[in-house]
Specification:
Blueprint lengths: L8 H50 L4 H11 L6 E6 L5 E3 L4 H6 L2 E3 L5 E4 L3 E10 L2 E8 L1 H51 L16 H52 L6 H31 L5 E4 H12 L7 E5 L5 E4 L1 H17 L7 E7 L3 E7 L7 H4 L23 H11 L3 E6 L5 E8 L5
Parallel strand pairs: 8-10
Antiparallel strand pairs: 1-2, 1-6, 3-4, 4-5, 5-6, 7-9, 10-11, 11-13, 12-13
Helix pairs in contact: 1-2, 1-4, 5-6, 6-10, 7-8, 8-10
């Protein structure tokens, strides 16, 4: 079974143009031919009516009378024939060779007065009965047939010339139209040949508008892909760096125990402490990576949740674990939001962890839930050192940490806020960061409010 080969721009335009031109040509030929035929038929019918009136008045019975009528009517005697069928069945011809014309085979055109007489041509035929005689009138349509031949020949030649010129023009037009698309496709193929490299922008023509828009969409897709590829590379680099440090520490302490453990047993507890600390750090990092991986593939079914009740519960359970005083603020009306309970619990816990790590031990942390027209907000505010404005655009990136926090005193992998941002997005919400008053940081999560029954 043969499959249809895909066509190029030139093939599609050429075939469409050829079909259009042929269709227009056929319509013109038919229209002009029908108009000419109808006009000639009306003329022949008018002549037949005039001749019938003259025959009915004069009661022509011989050739001399017919010549007199023919001269007065202006008819072409070479194309006009009359046969008289008498009451006794005999036939009289008013022109020479009439007997052979009467004996010739004839075919009538249905629904018309046209009759084709073999060897003589096409005639307009009509019969008139008067005075016991039947006059058979035949008016020749030779002019009509000749004009149709000339007209159709001229139109066929004109259409043929137009088709040749049109195909040449279409070839140039198709080449000009397809050039931007071919250039775009070539650039896309080159970009696809190096999937591991950052792709450059594809050429964007000014016209046709459709191809320009397609190139623009491709470039937006490439920019998104480049950003994703860059983030993946950065993620792998940062994850490798973060894992390399605890592994190097663990291996260094193990080597130290092997070399000097027998002679200096007092270093063993200290080295084991470092190993335990670094392995715990590595465990937390791997758990955070798993959280991110699961969040990327998670499917969330949002349900109405009493956000204020959930926040109060988290605050009550979290307070004994930290030294900073926790304060919950909420409206009297229950704040109902759309979201996943487990994810919202994880979001609030992560924000509290972040506030705990970067706030002084004696400064309070505030959790606030507020309702608005169509949204519900959850805010965690601390009185720490705050986040510089230049760093706020990056704090939700994976492994990003503010420079001031890169110290051994504050543990962390830089994944906590990235996980929070991912979970907020899965719940179709937004998260923003701003300065707190008089100092510190405010993280605000905005969720869609649940409709009240």
């Amino acid at each position: 079974m043969s499959t249809k080969q895909p066509r190029t721009y030139a093939d599609i335009i050429r075939r469409s143009f050829t079909s259009l031109l042929l269709t227009i040509g056929i319509i013109i030929v038919l229209t002009v031919s029908i108009t000419l035929v109808v006009d000639q038929l009306l003329r022949a019918q008018n002549q037949a009516e005039q001749l019938s009136a003259s025959l009915e008045t004069s009661q022509v019975t011989n050739f001399q009378d017919w010549l007199a009528i023919n001269r007065s009517s202006g008819l072409n005697s070479h194309n006009t024939f009359v046969f008289i069928r008498n009451a006794n069945g005999s036939t009289t011809s008013l022109l020479p060779h009439g007997a052979s014309l009467a004996a010739a085979d004839t075919w009538s055109v249905p629904f018309t007065h046209l009759t084709y007489i073999k060897g003589w041509g096409l005639f307009f035929a009509e019969a008139l009965k008067t005075g016991g005689r039947t006059y058979h009138l035949y008016i020749g349509m030779h002019v009509l047939v000749g004009n149709l031949h000339v007209l159709i020949s001229v139109l066929i030649i004109a259409i043929g010339i137009s088709l040749l010129i049109g195909l040449w023009f279409v070839r140039r037009l198709a080449k000009r139209i397809s050039a931007p698309t071919i250039q775009l496709a070539t650039a896309a193929q080159q970009a696809a040949a190096n999937p591991e490299m950052t792709q450059t922008e594809l050429p964007q023509p000014t016209e046709p508008v459709e191809v320009a828009q397609l190139a623009k969409d491709f470039n937006q897709l490439l920019a998104s892909q480049n950003g994703r590829l860059q983030r993946e590379r950065q993620f792998i680099s940062d994850a490798s760096h973060e894992l390399r440090t605890p592994i190097a520490t663990i291996r260094g302490n193990l080597k130290l125990i092997k070399r000097r453990g027998d002679q200096h047993p007092e270093i063993i507890p200290e080295s084991l402490g470092f190993i335990d600390q670094e392995s715990l750090r590595m465990q937390h990092l791997i758990e955070n990576l798993l959280h991110l991986s699961r969040a990327d593939r998670a499917e969330v079914v949002r349900q109405p949740i009493a956000l204020s009740t959930l926040a109060q519960g988290v605050v009550s359970h979290y307070q004994p674990l930290i030294s900073q005083p926790l304060t919950f603020m909420g409206s009297d009306e229950t704040a109902m939001a759309l979201g996943d309970t487990d994810m919202l619990h994880q979001i609030l816990t992560a924000l509290l962890d972040n506030a705990h790590k970067y706030s002084p031990a004696d400064q309070p942390i505030t959790v606030q839930v507020a309702t608005h027209a169509d949204t519900v907000t959850l805010t965690v505010a601390d009185l720490g050192d705050g986040i510089p404005a230049a760093d706020r655009a990056h704090i939700f990136e994976r492994f990003y940490r503010v420079d001031a926090s890169r110290s051994s005193k504050i543990e962390g992998s830089g994944l906590g806020l990235a996980i929070v941002a991912q979970l907020v997005q899965l719940n179709q919400g937004t998260i923003t960061v701003a300065d707190n008053v008089p100092r510190g940081t405010r993280f605000t999560v905005t969720l869609q409010a649940a409709k009240k029954n």
